[in-house]
């Protein structure tokens, strides 16, 4: 299953729009022209694909000429990310590139500043200090800035960096379950400083990108800022990948464990160690595929139920309502 087909709570769209809709030049067509149904904003439990979220982000940034969508005192004009990356590309190794990253932000942003340092435990800390008052956008601003630095860092060295620790200074939010798709490492809340911690060995990794690959990186942004880290939860990833092509088959834990050449007990234990379970993986996969199929196709609901392995449309309707708070038919109408 492509990462793009995984879904994210519509709450993030609501947060993106919080500053945009107050602009005097705001036009609802900015959303509708992307195929996003504004009605979903008021639907409890609604979700959109990562791909659609990234498209919305890019569209809003273009229309507002602000790549941070009003989250800071001064806008970051379109092209900011491009010139940031150009500054970093000529660095020999990641440590030099991150130093340029910090200096670049010191010049353009008066509300937040990045700092790279070493901890007594021997880890590298990339801290995000709040210099100004971030107001109601604070949580989203901190979330996105950490996604940005982790995404740019990993892309520069062409390796997904598995961060040792990811810290936020605010209490655990209601949408914290989404973080497993946003941050490659364990997340902690109520910490003194917003920060990423990583193995110092990555600082010596050479920069492996160039201006040609930068074009694709910018074209897909912010998709490259977040990702499902396969190495962090390998068993969860293997089960999800195996089920993706076989959703119409009545597979249980026993059959999947056998196909993956492990015992049922061992697979269940490994999934539990990763904070997951077979049923949770299956339900999440069904939910994400259902949202994608309802959004991108005209396949009848009954056929979607069959493709996803439900006994009948009634069972699918009941499950989808539990996932999103809406029946699949009503959900699709809001997308039209």
Automatic annotation (TrEMBL):
Transcription regulation as a keyword of this entry, yes or no, is yes
The record, for PROSITE patterns, names: HTH_ARAC_FAMILY_2
* Keyword entries, A-Z: DNA-binding, Transcription, Transcription regulation
Q: Which residues form the HTH araC/xylS-type domain?
A: 237-334
Q: What is this protein called?
A: AraC family transcriptional regulator
Q: Which organism is it from?
A: Alcaligenes endophyticus
Lineage of the organism: Bacteria, Pseudomonadati, Pseudomonadota, Betaproteobacteria, Burkholderiales
